[in-house]
Design a protein that fits this description.
The chain is built from nine helices and eight strands. The chain is of the alpha/beta class. Helix 3 crosses helix 9 and helix 4 crosses helix 6. The radius of gyration is 18 Å and the shape is globular.
Length: 304
């Protein structure tokens, strides 16, 4: 199935824009932030910056809390960007859209990134952030009994891995994992699917990002490749969103099937006709906006 005409026109215009080549990591981070900055920042209740304590120092964070009385259910969110790119501020439009669609609180967390800090730095930060948000839920206006983890792309890998490590963590155990076009099997770079509309995408750079993130770590470890968890039966329920024309879609579908086979409730939200990265495009085309709304509804139902 091809893409919706309106969305296809947006994507063609996006691909026609000049991109960087031979960039430094700093250049790539600036360009990634500038690309996300084009999206509007919709109202998302009360928004305030936080500082969480990580294993190697302070972690920047931002709380998006709905304006309603009583403790709010919440998701601790880890941004995408191939582990190397992205931060709390650049992903602000994405988290605002998700918060507005879901009606629950989100805590967006900045983590250490490669090449400066390879695995397990980001995962250690993610686990510490979940523990601290759970411990400080009352002062943040959050419901300590309804705190989950979330992430998109590389952040989805961190969220799933953190959920695995925290499954026996008592009060810090996530009650939900929300994985948005996640990377869940890091053993190799999956091939890109054939494009139904003949679009030509620039090189992804995912192989270089993986090497920078892993830096020799065994990719078959479950905390690296959550799809390989030997016993998923103890994992929290999941909302998993995919993009039809995404090389990572088979991993997400396989993970959903493994969870369901182990008796873990799963809500699989298919991004029909969409591509990796659509969370930031809802203001430009109807199809990604509808997908964000479906994700929000699934999150709201799971945490209600």
């Amino acid at each position: 199935m091809g893409r919706d005409p309106e969305y296809l026109a947006f994507l063609r215009a996006r691909l026609a824009e000049p991109g960087g080549a031979g960039r430094t990591v700093a250049d790539a981070r600036r360009e990634h932030a500038a690309d996300l900055a084009r999206s509007p920042r919709p109202p998302a209740g009360t928004v305030r910056d936080l500082t969480l304590q990580g294993p190697a120092g302070p972690l920047p964070a931002r709380l998006y809390r709905p304006d309603r009385p009583g403790p709010a259910p919440a998701l601790v969110y880890f941004h995408g960007g191939g582990w190397v790119l992205g931060d709390v501020d650049s992903y602000d439009p994405v988290v605002r859209a998700l918060a507005a669609a879901s009606g629950v609180a989100w805590v967006s967390v900045g983590y250490r990134r490669p090449p400066e800090d390879p695995f397990p730095a980001a995962l250690d930060d993610a686990v510490a952030a979940v523990r601290e948000v759970a411990a400080g839920a009352a002062r943040l206006g959050l419901d300590p009994g309804r705190i989950g983890v979330a992430g998109d792309s590389a952040g989805g890998q961190l969220a799933a891995a953190a959920a695995g490590l925290l499954r026996d963590a008592g009060p810090a155990r996530p009650v939900l994992q929300v994985l948005l076009y996640p990377a869940l099997d890091l053993r190799e770079v999956p091939p890109a699917p054939p494009d139904p509309d003949g679009l030509r995408f620039p090189p992804s750079g995912i192989g270089r990002a993986l090497r920078a993130y892993l830096r020799g770590a065994d990719p078959a470890r479950p905390e690296v490749s959550p799809l390989l968890d030997p016993d998923p039966s103890g994992l929290p329920p999941a909302v998993i969103a995919t993009a039809e024309h995404d090389r990572l879609r088979p991993q997400a579908e396989a993970y959903a099937a493994r969870l369901a086979g182990a008796g873990v409730p799963v809500d699989l939200v298919p991004g029909t006709g969409l591509d990796h990265g659509f969370l930031g495009w809802g203001s430009f085309a109807r199809r990604p906006a509808e997908a964000v709304a479906r994700i929000g509804a699934a999150v709201r139902d799971a945490l209600a």
